[in-house]
TrEMBL record:
Principal EC category: transferase
Domain Integrase zinc-binding: 75-128
UniProt xrefs under Pfam families: Integrase_H2C2
Domain of life: Eukaryota
Organism of derivation: Ladona fulva (Scarce chaser dragonfly)
Enzyme Commission number: 2.7.7.49
GO MF assignments: RNA-directed DNA polymerase activity
Protein known as: RNA-directed DNA polymerase
Amino acid sequence: MDEDVFVIDEDQITEFSARKVAVATRWDKLLCQVLRAMNSNWPNPIEKKLEPFHKRESELAIENGCMFWGSKMVIPKELQSAVLCELHEGNPGMTKMKNLARTRVLLPNMDREIEETVRKCLHCQDQRSEAAQAPVHSWEFPAKPWNRLHIDFAGHNDFHWKVIIDARTKWPELLL
Ligand SMILES: [Zn+2]
């Protein structure tokens, strides 16, 4: 997937978290546009940013204010960078991070986002130069949900979310 959509598996969704994603969805300009189009008509001509959604129109659904793409919940942009940060945890380097992302989550422009993250990170750069001798970083996967949490802030201007990501499920909790 190369488009601007970010999804999470349905089995990682709790009712509580879904409610927070629903709140963030309401704040998300793009997702609101998609919602409007789903409820009435898709604009013609279709805007480029709506294209990935329009192409999969038949697979899109709304449930309790959350958008679903097949069995996956569409994660609003506000939460995406936090999940990207989580994937970067432990400075796995470019290749490992891409592999992780592919098996765990679906991220828009995934390779580009990851390349940018790694490029900006000195630790990951080090890892690249040592890659020939050093063993590949092994990403420690927590045994249970909530064993390890990552907390960060996301937002803009004077508005901030506190974002908590469970390291195992990648489940985001969003606090206002
Ligand atoms: Zn790094």
